[in-house]
Design a protein that fits this description.
heterodimer, B: alpha+beta, 8-stranded antiparallel beta sheet, rod-shaped
Chain lengths: 197, 275
């Protein structure tokens, strides 16, 4: 068994992944766990932009976002053996990892303090005003989509996706029951699913 | 709670977005195992999440990728080792022994070279020591000779300084008109010292003989040679009451009586002026 694994290891190492070839998630995970840098290369090419968008919206500055993206990939590479496919998809694991790093970074910079003074109305307006934000250039698609949501759902998305709030924090700060936060999150995501497709 | 209610609560979205505590997560996973519709809904939510994130994708600058791949290198090597542990650990041991053997061999060679070198050094030093000792011996001998000469000279000087010592100049006669020799005669001890100032070298089969004239009769005072080797003062036989001294050339070993026509030098003993 070990011999077969090792044999697979060796033969895999020689394989270079051409840009056109799609690799199954299973193979990708196997190769990452085997520390095949080609697999990491594939991962970066296909998913770094999605992660970078997530990170940048939370940390706000490109310089910090690049740092966090770098740290995220290093951590993915180092902790890949902790990832278990029966617990969820690879991307889910990666995006949560990136999100958590971003939130940690933001907290260390005390940006959250300024956020706490914002009222509910102001936050909703944020999304509209964001059209003047330099980031609007990139995320016109996302911003427009989110803007189509009902206001109470917009807030959830704004706080969770764009500001890195946890559901518990939203519940506490905006005095919304946690259960309600959860159901609104579901509603928001279902609405987005339709809009994004 | 029915699976539908469970799904409607939004707990699965919270699960996917990592908003749950560990115990809650475990519960969701259990429910997913139990209910395929829950498992399916989780998968759908994950797809939505990925689609949403891809929609909001922003390409990072090129430098980030480079930096990542540069920085993962040490980790790569570390991970490689731990991933291939069953095979590698033996390899590491083998490598260790190989390195150890090589290191030991190198040390042995170095040790041997040093040993050879030091032996050569020892030999060289030993030789020089022998030479030095030999030199020292020669110098000691020379010193002794010099000291002997010095002692002799001191003695002579002491002898000559005595008030009782008379100096008798013996001047050259027919055989050698330019010859000159001097006798120092101590009246107290009867010691006789002879200094050859200038006399021709004697042939090998002959020798000079010193005579003291005592009561008108010649008395043998000893034989001597004059050649390149001779110099300094010669101690002759003791003589009492000499009136004069003379040197004749005799056959080797001397004669009982002087050969008168072979008298080379002669001198009278000066008597102290009577006041």
């Amino acid at each position: 068994m070990a011999a077969i694994f090792l044999f697979k290891l060796k033969s895999n190492r020689i394989k270079h992944i051409s840009p056109q070839v799609k690799i199954s998630e299973e193979e990708l995970i196997d190769r990452l766990k085997a520390q095949d840098t080609e697999a990491l290369n594939y991962l970066y090419d296909h998913y770094s932009a999605a992660l970078y968008g997530t990170i940048l919206r939370i940390v706000r500055t490109e310089e910090v976002a690049q740092e966090v993206l770098h740290d995220a990939f290093l951590r993915i590479w180092e902790k890949i053996n902790q990832y278990q496919s029966d617990k969820g998809r690879l991307f889910t694991w990666m995006v949560n990892l990136a999100r958590n790093l971003s939130i940690d970074k933001v907290r260390s910079k005390e940006i959250k303090n300024t956020r706490k003074t914002d009222k509910v109305e102001d936050n909703v307006g944020l999304i509209d005003r964001s059209k003047n934000d330099h980031m609007a250039v990139d995320g016109i698609g996302i911003r427009e989509v989110v803007a189509k949501l009902p206001k109470d759902l917009q807030l959830i998305i704004e706080l969770m996706y764009f500001q890195g709030y946890t559901q518990s924090e939203i519940s506490e700060e905006y005095e919304i029951p946690l259960g309600t936060v959860k159901t609104r999150t579901r509603s928001a995501m279902q609405a987005l699913r339709k809009l994004v497709q | 709670m029915s699976p539908e209610e469970y799904i409607a609560s939004g707990i699965l979205e919270a699960f996917v977005m990592d908003q749950l505590e560990e115990t809650e997560r475990a519960e969701v996973l259990q429910m997913a195992e139990k209910h395929p519709e829950i498992k399916a809904e989780i998968a759908a939510i994950e797809e939505d999440l990925m689609a949403f994130a891809q929609k909001g994708a922003i390409a990072p600058p090129a430098g980030v990728k480079e930096k990542i791949f540069h920085d993962i290198q040490p980790a790569t090597q570390k991970e490689e080792k731990s991933a291939e542990t069953p095979v590698r650990s033996m390899g590491n041991q083998q490598k260790f022994y190989q390195y150890f053997a090589v290191a030991a061999s190198i040390l042995a060679v170095i040790g041997l070279s040093l040993a050879v070198y030091f032996y050569q050094q020892y030999q060289s030093v030993n030789n020089r020591l022998a030479e030095a000792l030999s030199d020292q011996q020669q110098m000691a001998q020379q010193f002794n000779l010099t000291r002997q000469k010095n002692d002799a000279m001191e003695q002579q000087l002491a002898f000559l300084s005595k008030p009782s010592v008379k100096m008798v100049r013996m001047h050259g006669l027919n055989p050698a008109p330019n010859a000159l020799a001097t006798v120092f005669w101590d009246e107290n001890s009867d010691n006789v010292m002879l200094k050859v100032n200038q006399m021709p070298d004697n042939p090998e089969e002959k020798q000079y003989q010193l005579w003291a004239i005592v009561d008108g009769k010649p008395v043998d005072a000893g034989v001597f040679d004059v050649n390149d080797q001779s110099g300094g003062m010669l101690k002759m036989k003791n003589i009492k009451n000499a009136q004069a001294f003379a040197v004749t050339l005799e056959p080797k070993g001397g004669s009982k009586s002087p050969t008168m026509d072979q008298m080379y030098v002669m001198g009278k003993v000066q008597s102290p002026p009577t006041s």
